[in-house]
Amino acid sequence: MKYLVGETTNGTAVFAVDGENAVNLTALNAEIGDDLIGIVQNPQLIESIADRIADAPRVAVSAITPALPIANPGTIICLGLNYTDHIKEGGYDIPDYPALFMRGKNSIMAAGAPLVRPTCSEKLDYEAELMFIVGKGGRHISEADALDHVFGYTVFNDGSVRDYQRKTHQWTPGKNFDDTGAIGPFVVTPDEVPAGASGLKIESRVGDEILQSSNTGNMIWSVAQTIATISQYTTLEPGDLIAMGTPPGVGHAKKPNPRWLVPGETVEIEIEGIGICANPIVDEADHNKGAA
Phi/psi zone of residue 19: left (φ > 0), alpha (ψ -120 to 50 degrees), beta? Predict the structure, then answer.
């Protein structure tokens, strides 16, 4: 199934996408709620309405304003350095253990929302990434069983403020500016894509300019390996978000000059079989002025 969490004139709801149209699942069963956490925690909610979806009213996907798939994720864990050519362009050595960092909730936003370039830096970069939502939680999950713990896959733009990322050996500042991590808009269940969402084209672009183009099959650590690795040190919970790293072609590594995102542009991240996460770039001062 392909899900979309979003807002219409009737409020925020969970939708099942059917081509260019979608079914309001929340209207079929209010227990589903207004984001995916209800279904993640209780998959039987979908089973209870499965026979009603085919004949339910449709709304155009274009009429739905995307919201975060999980409104209040517990933990957001991201991999760095998961594509060999990206490691090389950044000047790093290929690690034997994944580089892991965390994002805070204020740093993420929905597809379609403004991605904010902060006033303190012009070095706003893009990173096309596969992200998955944890379905069944657990600790010490084996690699063999790991994919059973995935609820669904989505698209992530790990917007990074590079000068702040490199101020310390820890990447936290550059990866946690408000409204820099775009998620969505669609979430596809594992049966919609190859195992572990491997072998999918992944691309970032601004207009006709292709910035990154690779394949999720090029990841060093697979989704299953990542789940096994992370669950060695922490208990994964339903609704946690895990991002799988970016391929080569990021802005800071462009030659002869870095390619930063600037206000007025719209950056798109596309993953084959999942969808496009598109966000306009805005300056923080203008963003705050609009919110006032």
Answer: left
